[in-house]
Design goal:
Length: 109
Amino acid sequence: MEEKFKQGNVTSRAALGYTLQDKSLVPNEEKKLFIQKLFLDFLETNLSLNKFSKKYNLSINGLKKILRNFTYIGKVKFKGEIIQGKHSGIISPEIFNKVQAKLEALGIK
């Protein structure tokens, strides 16, 4: 798995918004739009994490995993290390960083 990571390949199953084709992550257009909407909506609303997760029919932990997932900006993470992946991101780094800042400001880990 470490060798896969060093090559920029995903080391787990495909994140929501992607499909695995020929061992590569490819954006799934329909689910990609869902993920993009979720990130933008999170920035624009002031709902509690509980209410926000219910709005998107996700568990709170599932929502946090999505919002903290570096896969969405084209990176891969393994054993605490983050590198550029071979796949394309579906969220801009700017939006991702704003979401991380909001999570931190809210004290959400």
